[in-house]
Design a protein that fits this description.
Layout (H helix, E strand, L loop, with lengths): L5 E7 L5 E9 L9 E8 L3 H12 L2 E8 L11 H4 E6 L1 H7 L3 E3 L6 E3 L6 E3 L4 E2 L5 E2 L1 H6 L1
Parallel strand pairs: 4-6
Antiparallel strand pairs: 1-2, 2-3, 3-5, 4-5, 7-8, 9-10
The structure holds zinc ion (ZN).
Zinc ion (ZN) binds next to helix 4.
C-alpha cells in the first residue's frame, strides 16, 4: 500500500498493541486545496471516530464523499462500504465537495515472478543466486 502514497492512520493501546486503523490518502491536488485528505477502510473503530480525531488534530472539517479508484471500488484497491470515504479539509472545501465522487487514481506496483509468471507484490519476490526474482511459493518449492 505504501507504494501508492497511501498512509495508514493507526491507533495503539498503552501496551503498544495496535487496535484500529484507516487508510488516508492526500487529495489536495484533486480538490485544489493546500491540505485535504480522504479516509476510508476503517478497522477497529468507526471511520467517523477516526476521522473525528484526525480532523481535530489537523483543525479541519470533514464531510462524506464517494471514492473510486480507477473507476471502481474493487480491483487494485478495495474500498469498503461501496466507496464510502470522509474528506478532511478546510470547511469551505468540504462544503464544495460534499457527496461528490473523488477518483483516487492509485495503482499498485506489481512485479512478475520469473518462474510461475504470477503477479506478486514487488516486496515479496526473492532474488535467486542466478539473478532471477521468484515468488515465495516458487522459492519454497526450489
Ligand atoms: Zn512463482
Amino acid at each position: 500500500m505504501a507504494d501508492n502514497g497511501l498512509m495508514a492512520v493507526r491507533f495503539y493501546r498503552q501496551s503498544g498493541k495496535g487496535y484500529a486503523r484507516a487508510w488516508m490518502c492526500d487529495v489536495s491536488k484533486k480538490v485544489n486545496s493546500p491540505e485535504a485528505y480522504v479516509l476510508f477502510n476503517a478497522y477497529g473503530l468507526m471511520l467517523e471516530e477516526i476521522c473525528g480525531v484526525v480532523a481535530a488534530v489537523l483543525k479541519l472539517g470533514s464531510v462524506p464523499v464517494s471514492l473510486r479508484n480507477n473507476g471502481g471500488t474493487h480491483g487494485t484497491l478495495f474500498i469498503n462500504r461501496s466507496g464510502y470515504g470522509l474528506l478532511i479539509a478546510e470547511p469551505e472545501v468540504c462544503k464544495a465537495q460534499q457527496s461528490r465522487t473523488i477518483e483516487l487514481g492509485l495503482r499498485r506496483k506489481y512485479a512478475q515472478c520469473q518462474q510461475c509468471h504470477g503477479r506478486r507484490s514487488r516486496s515479496t519476490l526473492q532474488l535467486q543466486p542466478d539473478g532471477r526474482r521468484i515468488c515465495e511459493w516458487c522459492a519454497g518449492r526450489g
